[in-house]
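Hey,

The postdoc asked me to send both predictions to you directly instead of through the lab channel. I've kept everything plain text so nothing gets mangled by the mail client. Protein one:
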Amino acid sequence: MDNLNRLIELHRNSYLDLLPKSQIEQQQLFFQNKLEALLDKAQVKEIYKDRVNGKTLGYGLISSYFHPYYQETVDQLHFDCDITDSEAQEWMLRWIHTVCANKTVITEIRPSYFPLYQRMYPKLALENVVFAGNVSDSLEAWDELYSDKLSRISDSEYSVKRVRSSDLEQIFELKQSIFSKQSEFNPYFQNKAFREEAKKRYLYYLDHSLLYKVVKKGIIYGFFGAFIDSDHPLWGTSAGLEFAFDTDLQGKYFGVSAYGKLLTELSEKNVRFIRGGTSNPAVIHISQKIGRPIFYLTCSNRDIGIDSSSFSRLSLPK
């Protein structure tokens, strides 16, 4: 347990410049509960500790679980080190390279480790970018940049309506069509098990979230939504955003308009935070333009069809 306590402490330090103090404490508790649950379920395979001249360099932990998107068992890496120590950095990089040589792994790289990311790649390739963000700050920045785009959809030949349960089949057909052509935006969607779980999620959130369809003559050409949680274990009242537009609607600021509509309505509902991951270059671009901080990068050493060009507009803090 001493090793885990030190791991939790180092983990906490990696968020000091990203989250307010109250949320750092929540994040620490969230992470601690996660690790203790792994121990209780005997999912922890290994705990590493290196010492040079009596100095602790870092800790790494590997847990095993069945990945619902990959449909196979993968190993998840949890690692932390004293990022200000060059020896600790080298230890961590050696450990990651060693593990990745022998296992299919997935991990979350937090902002403190962004300067080292290029030295992890190609052992760990980027799958998606998970953004955080305060709704009021994001809305203020969106207004300054894009307020003239808010009516882009409503001024078009398309209309925006709330999603009903009877729309889900058509929405999923649309998404399957989009992601079959642009699989890098959601490489998991062709997996039937993933789609079935996603449908259950939509039904669960339908009545208490903001889910919209973009329609013309009864045909759905786009979907966007904010999936609202009132008691998320880390973020409290918060929402995850999702966007999917037919290729004919892409590049016409429909996504920007949808983003602004969701932020406006989330603010009216007193939802404080937004969070969620994407590999869509347009969503990455807008999220960074309005100042949403990157919470972590999801990376893996498995090739799932995402080309690195998907992240060409991603700007990582140095």
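Protein two:
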Amino acid sequence: MSDTDNLTEAFAAADKGDASLLVGLYADDMTWAGFEPDGTQTVYTKGSFLEGFGEYWTKLGLA
């Protein structure tokens, strides 16, 4: 399976409430740059991603 296929499958599963495939794709020490909702730049980690993902599901009433 290609990286694109793995990501597509992982996000599709996460949309259905199973984030395990998505979490499994990220190494514990992985970081990447991104932007906050207010436009400021930040560095994300797997931990901050998981924290944000949990908040997202909670807001949707799915966590």
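Summary for protein two, as requested: The mean pLDDT is 83.

Thanks,
C.
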